[in-house]
Amino acid sequence: xxxxxxxxxxxxxxxxxxxxxxxxxxxxxxxxxxxxxxxxxxxxxxxxxxxxxxxxxxxxxxxxxxxxxxxxxxxxxxxxxxxxxxxxxxxxxxxxxxxxxxxxxxxxxxxxxxxxxxxxxxxxxxxxxxxxxxxxxxxxxxxxx
Length: 145
What we know:
The chain is of the alpha+beta class. It has three helices and seven strands, in the order H-H-E-E-H-E-E-E-E-E. The longest helix has 23 residues, at 8-30.
């Protein structure tokens, strides 16, 4: 099978979406909520049931994440290959993410490692590509062989 050829419009969309994920991860690690708000729509829905959290709206998720600021001391999220299907002004993605997080538990700090997938739906809006739906899927927790 020959390699796929991309037109300029699709290349631009792919780079914009990669930039969106880079911006989202950097904003989450820095608790920069102004930047984080540029990656989701205000009416986005998130499902983190694999992690014991009920499905919620973006504002509810943002408040939950803000509540971790005193507990999540440091974080690094590393993405793998972007699996992307573009359909005009809508896209679906599956993004593997390796999360390494230092959490404060009582007086001690603990390093947690988790592998997840972001299963997202994105839409092109006036301001650019934004996540409108996310299901975070647990791939592997710390210590599982």
